């Protein structure tokens, strides 16, 4: 098998007809005869699965992994990568924001230089409005500040990878997936290519809530620095409190009755401390849950049926 194209399904039906036509044309243009189109149905609520089962009758290269429920984008991608058989594996979203023809450019680069293991796309200028651009900038800046692995800004899902690289990526066996970081943690020779991303037709399935959840998940799955910061912040609060108590004692000794240690100030300090402790426990709790999730040993996804 020369090439595997891996794509996930979630409310994808409006895009599939065009996507299949364009990806087949790109594969024909790079003169690859042996390929598979591997779709992972991530609990899509529309009729994407039924559509692909019907198209498979005329395109035998279509292969479908039907997951038992919606596990999430990254987990669905992992399932697809683990079943890809090609010497080269092309990961792409099928919403047509990135044109499937980008495979031609990626293939040319990796074919001309055998030392390259991955060709990935990134946006030089992030698409979207002001808020989307600002959120994206904050996201990547925060991730890179917290992580020891430097991740290029505005990376895309789309990437062409060697089988060796994908096999090593899958060996990580993380239960708490953040593929955006894992792609670069494993190393290998990777080359970025600027890609102009289009505008998706219809609403994105990545809502603001999901983006915030992804940011929290990425930070806590790929960095322990928040725990280090909690430790140092706790030391700072403790040291500051000791100094403040010494100051109050000295003031009380010197000025005696003039210094009033009021009830209001005591309540305010207690509320502040309670808020800090609650925040600390919340962050620690997130990490403990991730440890619990990892040691359970559950599969990251369950495949209900494979259509080959």
UniProtKB/TrEMBL annotation:
<dbReference type="GO" id="GO:0016757">
    <property type="term" value="F:glycosyltransferase activity"/>
</dbReference>
<dbReference type="InterPro" id="IPR029044">
    <property type="entry name" value="Nucleotide-diphossugar_trans"/>
</dbReference>
<protein>
    <submittedName>
        <fullName>Glycosyl transferase, group 2 family protein</fullName>
    </submittedName>
</protein>
<dbReference type="Pfam" id="PF00535">
    <property type="entry name" value="Glycos_transf_2"/>
</dbReference>
<dbReference type="InterPro" id="IPR050256">
    <property type="entry name" value="Glycosyltransferase_2"/>
</dbReference>
<dbReference type="GO" id="GO:0005886">
    <property type="term" value="C:plasma membrane"/>
</dbReference>
<feature type="transmembrane region" description="Helical">
    <location>
        <begin position="229"/>
        <end position="250"/>
    </location>
</feature>
<keyword id="KW-0808">Transferase</keyword>
<keyword id="KW-1133">Transmembrane helix</keyword>
<keyword id="KW-0472">Membrane</keyword>
<feature type="transmembrane region" description="Helical">
    <location>
        <begin position="262"/>
        <end position="289"/>
    </location>
</feature>
<feature type="domain" description="Glycosyltransferase 2-like">
    <location>
        <begin position="4"/>
        <end position="169"/>
    </location>
</feature>
<keyword id="KW-0812">Transmembrane</keyword>
<dbReference type="InterPro" id="IPR001173">
    <property type="entry name" value="Glyco_trans_2-like"/>
</dbReference>
<keyword id="KW-0328">Glycosyltransferase</keyword>
